[in-house]
Specification:
The complex is a heterodimer of chains A (329) and B (451). Chain A has helices at 15-63, 73-83, 91-107, 119-130, 172-179, 185-190, 202-214, 220-240, 248-253, 257-264, 275-295, 302-319. Chain A has 329 residues and is mainly alpha-helical. Chain A has one domain: Ammonium transporter fold (Orthogonal Bundle). In chain A, helix 2 packs parallel to helix 4 (119-130). Chain B has 451 residues and is an alpha/beta fold. Chain B folds into three domains: 2-25 and 124-287, NADH-ubiquinone oxidoreductase 51kDa subunit (Rossmann fold), CATH 3.40.50.11540; 33-117 and 292-366, Ubiquitin-like (UB roll); 382-450, no CATH class. In chain B, 30% of the residues lie in helices and 19% in strands. In chain B, the strands form four sheets. In chain B, strands 1-14-13-16-15 form a five-stranded mixed sheet, sandwiched between helices. In chain B, strands 2-8-7-4 form a four-stranded antiparallel sheet, with no helix packed on it. In chain B, helix 4 (180-187) packs parallel to helix 6, helix 5 (189-203) packs across helix 8 and helix 13 packs across helix 15 (433-450). The chains are: A mainly alpha (329), B alpha/beta (451). At the A-B interface, helix 1 of A face strand 15, helix 10, helix 14 and helix 15 of B.
Chain lengths: 329, 451
């Protein structure tokens, strides 16, 4: 006879189910990334996943900790990390960032559940600091020979400066910021522009997000809060100075915003746990994105906005705990 | 999200909560049947909240079924009655479901006896005073049959500065598998109404609401047909949701009132009694009898003859399971529903007044729960979204793991947790939150006692 504490029943989903479904939700984005950027993107994504998974495996072995690959979370980290990188990035840089992201961003904090920051973004932030030029060199999408030819920059020797053979393309955001050129929202929606491996096709990212929300595996409040904040702030700026600031639709669909709002900011570990906290957190991320994009030195601000919000997320929770039944407000 | 849905769908309910699979289909259609007498019935003298009853019988004495065998010891105590005509064989400590050893009266039923129950001094509705009704309820041994086993008469007595505007009769029965209250509402609706008359007279309640969840439409029909013309009683149908049967949650769902922390329903003008308790009052008081049996559901995949049984109080779990055809693969037996019911550690533990069911799970149901991996908390917020009292189980779980028990009590409302199990049920990391919270409460009590 077993003695156990109630409850004696449980609902179905477990952590590995949730994580595996996030991977499923990312698959359309991954397939499109390879379709748009060819072999280079495939190599970047493969290297990213292998670097992340391998790092976690080795560190667990070294530390004598139980194996954690079965929870699938490091696979998500690897995929997300790869999707945020420029398609022509040297593979050795991809590996370095992946090792840093999982090693420092996840393992040192105590592994799944304890990471204060999104590990994929920690890896990317490290690369942004270490290789600022490589991280802002974009190869164009839909090159004719993308399935036959691997960019020489991709295969650059470790610690060597990569050589770029394709003429580098401006992303819609850098075109807007530094050349005052707009991009058709329809192209942004469908992912016909240049950009990071997996950030360009807004539609497929949204499809993945809707799948997760339908399965109750993603907090939609964060995504909605970010998108609404960005749209509202841009609309105000655009109404006051139409020539200077873009349309809300351009802001929502360009750069890493959609990928960040749907898959990055919603990492449950590094985001608030209360409903109100999630709204506040999304507001903060959306606000920071607009500020960095409009008035900062960089064209894109999604990564830093999310990392900064990750840092304050526990404090947001402390401020907005729900009122306990029967307690005075 | 549930908040929006509730408002949209109209039927009253509360925010948060969960929807476990109901599993009521096996027994909801089965009429209440009389259960046989076990060869030995064990009557713990404390099977209610409060002081143990004082035995008024000796070892070797013959008792008649329904005869008082123990008297209440003070106000927070109730009488006990012989569940069968027989001989008192022993009065000694015996294991109970609470985990404590409790002084118990062992009665061996006499097989040749007719087991007829004689009526006692009746408590008549028309000429009894509120005080006489309360005393009659105490002497009938009536306690909350929903599970808490709080002495009912103690609920009815409140300070003069309080008043009752609403009497709630709780027929929610939100625990999976259990169908006892359902059958009582269906088969004993006249007793329920009779009980309401006594309760209204005792408390001067202005109106009465019988609360039933939407998954018992036949009970709603039966009760609606039995409603009196001369008394303001209504049946309210609630959305199906766990743990809506918890008193404080039900009050919020029906009246949008919150019982203050550390307070009682009477503080918001409410008295709430379980529907089976109400039926017992209506059935026993006019005859001057006491509780010697109750309706329980015996079900679960480990039981062959599932059903709703009128079972003598004191029947050992072993006898109950054997009589119903127990599966040899049974791995876990618990009393009450699967969300809150305590597991049985010893099959000699008897059915008491607070037992609403005996459920048996086999290795098929328990293996998946026992063998699953426990992950770290990923802050998915499912527990926060399920907690009916708006605690943060994720954070409480973290504090418990770090043994910061006093902080749980001081800063995070540990004692507002009534262990409904909703957070534990939804946790994808399979963290045993309820177990942590029970332990934390014990540890805080210990720490405070030593200071």
């Amino acid at each position: 006879m077993e003695i156990a504490s109630s409850p004696h029943v449980a609902s179905g989903a477990s952590v590995d189910d949730i994580m595996r479904n996030v991977v499923y939700a990312l698959l359309p984005v991954v397939v499109f990334a390879v379709f748009a950027f060819g072999l280079s993107a495939l190599l970047v994504l493969t290297t990213a996943v292998l670097a992340c998974v391998g790092t976690e495996y080795v560190l667990n072995r070294v530390a004598g900790a139980p194996d954690t690959l079965g929870d699938w979370s490091v696979v998500i980290t690897g995929l997300l990390y790869g999707l945020t990188l420029p398609p022509g990035l040297a593979l050795w840089m991809v590996a370095v960032g992946g090792i840093f992201g999982v090693g420092v961003g996840k393992f040192l904090f105590g592994g799944l559940g304890s990471n204060a920051f999104n590990p994929a973004l920690v890896g990317r932030a490290f690369l942004q600091a270490a290789f600022p030029s490589a991280m802002t060199t974009w190869s164009p999408a839909f090159l004719a020979d993308r399935f036959a030819h691997i960019s020489s920059s991709t295969l650059a020797f470790p610690f060597a400066r990569p050589e770029y053979d394709a003429i580098s393309a401006a992303t819609p955001l850098s075109a807007m910021k530094f050349r005052d050129t707009g991009t058709d929202p329809m192209e942004l929606m469908l992912g016909l522009t240049s950009g990071s491996v997996g950030e360009t096709c807004a539609v497929l990212i949204l499809v993945g997000g809707i799948y997760l929300v339908a399965r109750n595996m993603m907090n939609w409040r964060i995504t909605v809060s970010i998108l609404a904040t960005v749209a509202t702030m841009t609309l105000i700026a655009n109404t006051l100075a139409p020539g200077e600031y873009p349309q809300p639709m351009f802001m929502l669909l360009s750069g890493g915003l959609m990928l960040g709002a749907v898959f990055m900011a919603t990492d449950p570990v590094a985001s608030p746990i209360t409903d109100t906290g999630c709204w506040v957190y999304g507001l903060l991320i959306g606000g920071l994105i607009v500020v960095i994009r409009f008035w900062g030195g960089m064209a894109e601000g999604v990564m830093y906005a999310i990392l900064l919000a990750n840092a304050v997320s526990p404090h947001i929770d402390n401020l907005v705990q729900p009122r306990v039944y029967g307690s005075r407000a | 999200m549930t908040g929006i849905m509730d408002t949209a769908l109209g039927a009253p309910s509360f925010r948060h909560g969960v929807h476990p699979r109901e599993h009521k289909e096996d027994t909801r259609g089965l009429a209440i049947r009389q259960f046989p007498f076990a060869p030995m019935l064990i009557m713990p003298l404390r099977q209610h909240l409060g002081a143990p009853a004082v035995p008024v019988v000796r070892v070797g004495q013959e008792v008649a079924r329904g005869e008082t065998i123990a008297r209440p010891d003070g106000f927070m105590s109730v009488a006990m009655h012989a569940p069968a005509s027989g001989v008192v064989r022993r009065i000694e400590l015996a294991p109970t479901i609470s985990g404590d050893m409790v002084e118990s009266v062992f009665i061996e039923p006499l097989p040749a006896d007719t087991q007829e129950v004689d009526d006692g001094e009746p408590c008549r509705l028309d000429n009894a005073t509120p005080e006489q009704i309360m005393t009659a309820i105490q002497n009938a041994g009536i306690v909350g049959l929903g599970g808490a086993a709080f002495p009912t008469h103690a609920k009815l007595r409140f300070p003069d500065d309080k008043h009752v505007d609403t009497l709630i009769i709780n027929g929610v029965e939100c625990e999976p598998y259990l169908t006892t209250d359902h059958r009582v509402m269906l088969e004993q609706s006249a007793d329920v109404i009779a009980g309401i008359r006594y309760l209204v007279k005792a408390t001067s309640a202005v109106r009465t609401i019988i609360a039933v969840e939407a998954n018992k439409p036949d009970a709603v029909t039966a009760l609606s047909a039995a409603l009196p013309d001369d008394l303001p009683v209504d049946v309210t149908v609630l959305k199906v949701k766990y743990p809506q049967g918890a008193e404080k949650i039900l009050i919020k769902a029906l009246l949008k009132r919150e019982v203050p922390q550390g307070g009682l329903p009477i503080d918001v003008g409410v008295i709430c009694t379980n529907v089976a308790t109400t039926a017992e009052i209506g059935r026993l008081l006019p005859r001057g009898r006491g509780i010697q049996e109750r309706v329980i559901t015996i079900a679960g995949p480990g039981v062959e003859k599932k059903g709703n049984y009128l079972i003598p109080i004191g029947t050992p779990v072993r006898f109950a399971l054997e009589a119903c055809g127990a599966d040899p693969d049974i791995t876990r037996v618990f009393m009450g529903g699967p969300m809150m019911g305590p597991a049985v550690s010893n099959l000699d533990i008897p059915v008491t007044k607070g037992t609403s069911g005996i459920l048996a799970f086999t290795v098929h149901e328990t293996a998946a729960i026992v063998e699953r991996k426990v992950y770290a908390c990923i802050h998915c917020a499912r527990c926060v979204e399920s907690c009916p009292v708006f605690l943060n189980p994720s954070h409480l779980g973290l504090l418990a793991k770090n043994e910061q028990y006093e902080q749980m009590a001081d800063d995070h409302s540990l004692y507002d947790c009534f262990e409904c199990g909703a957070c534990n049920y939804v946790c994808p990391s399979h963290i045993p939150l309820v177990q942590y919270f029970r332990l934390a409460k014990k540890m805080v009590r210990k720490l405070r006692a030593t200071h």
